[in-house]
Amino acid sequence: MGGLPAQNSSSVISLNVHKDQSPGSVGPGPDSKPRKKICCACPETKKLRDECVVEHGEAACGKWIEAHRKCLRAEGFNV
């Protein structure tokens, strides 16, 4: 049998997950919504914000920047 001693080679990985929170969710607390990654949240406002910044510069796009932040906050992000 190969000459190696038999050992228990199983690995255990533990995750700290609150009992009210699934492993795939992001954010603390039982009442927080399951969320996407911040890069994937609010694609409509992100697109408008990005197009405005490219065409007119950040200083002229405060309205769209704030609209995107508001959307992200509604999704549960702290921005």
From TrEMBL:
Region feature Disordered, mapped onto this chain: 1-35
Positions of Cu cation binding: 39-40
Comp. bias regions, Polar residues: 1-14
Location in the cell: Mitochondrion intermembrane space
InterPro entries: Cys_alpha_HP_mot_SF, Cyt_c_oxidase_Cu-chaperone
Cellular component GO terms, alphabetical: mitochondrial intermembrane space
GO terms of molecular function: copper chaperone activity; copper ion binding
Primary location class: mitochondrion
Pfam families reported in the protein's UniProt record: COX17
Similarity comment text for this entry: Belongs to the COX17 family.
Entries under PANTHER family matching the protein: CYTOCHROME C OXIDASE COPPER CHAPERONE
Protein name in the entry: Cytochrome c oxidase copper chaperone
Organism: Coffea canephora
